Structures are given as C-alpha cells and as structure tokens.
Amino acid sequence: xxxxxxxxxxGKDKGEVSxxxxxxxxxxxxxxxxxxxVAQATNKRQWSASTQTRAEVSHSKRxxxxxxxxGNARQGFLGAPQFKGGGRVHAPRPKFEQHVRINRKERRAAxxxxxxxxxKESQAHILEYTALENPKTKTLAHFLKAxxxxxxxxxxxxxxxxxxxxxxxxLSKSLRNIPKVEFTYLPNLSGRSLALxxxxxxxxxxxxxxxxxxxxxx
Length: 218
Description:
- This protein is of the alpha/beta class.
- The chain has six helices and six strands; from the N terminus they run E-E-H-H-E-H-E-H-E-H-E-H.
- The radius of gyration is 27 Å and the shape is elongated.
C-alpha cells in the first residue's frame, strides 16, 4: 500500500495517507499514453484554417496589361497567386470529422499511469483542506512555499459535487493568480494537464472518488 504525505494549509506535516495500490500497479505501454495525449491535443484543434484559391478570390477578371509589346512575361488575371491580393496556391481548407475517439478504458489507464508515476516519484501530496471564507492567494502561496513548490507547475485535484461548489470556489479563486498553478475537478481531469504538471496536490476529501474512478481496471 503506497502512502502520501499529508499537509494542512499552513504547510505543516499531518502524517501520511494510504492510496489504492491499483494506482501504482498499472503497466501501460508508453505508446498508448502518447497516443492518448496526441489524440487529446488533436481534439482541441478547430480545424478551421481556410483561405481562398484563385477561383474564389474576388478580383477583376481583366488582364494586368496587354499580351505583347510590354517586355513583361504574359499575365492573364490579376487574381493569380503571384499578384498582391491574389488567391493562394494549395490553400488550407477546413477539415471535418477529424475528432479522434478515445476509448474510456485507455483514457483511464493512461491517466492512472501518469498519476502513478507522480506518486512513485514523490511528486504527489495530500492537502487537508479547511474551507476559506474568502479567497486568499497569500494563504495558498505560503502553502506552496512551505512545500517548496513555488515556481513549479502544480495541479490541484478536488472532488466534484453540487454542495461543494461554494467550498472550492474560494480555493479556485485563491489559486488562479498564482503562475503555473491549475485547479481542476476529478471528472474534468485532463491527461495533458497531469502530464505537464511537475507536482500534484490532491485534496484529502477527493481520495475516495480518485480510488473509485481510477483504482479499478475499467
């Protein structure tokens, strides 16, 4: 059974917490993790780049100058690509149905693998969170400094619930002015955000949902 160190908002050591061994026992092909991250990045693209060809550009159809007698190379259309304002050659077109479907089991396995690596490398921490009455960036900045996380890419994970929105709203607002720090709920956890983070801070109350969501094999 793996254990993670637990801290309070003051950065004081509050002991250790056990996590599901399933988060560490995952053996995933690194190629699958890469495919998942590439698919996620692909699905974020708009695929809307579009420019006009010479057939679509709105331009005069007259010749720039007469065919002979000017000493210039013959030209037939002011909207040709070689002229300013002319159409593009091999213009980019919108691409449709480029969405890459990610299998749910593969997604969970990839996230489980990345999170497991953070735990093995002692880059995951547990926060014993006490609700703040008002957003306090200074309090969270002090917490990060106490754990020597200042300046690092840190991802905060919290469980989601209608009754918890107000509780975590102050935490989210307290973190959003701190550079390189991101706050997200477990159902919205992105493998890309997890992979880019250098440290992960998991709220103690979210451990149950974390083990339930990622601890299983499906």
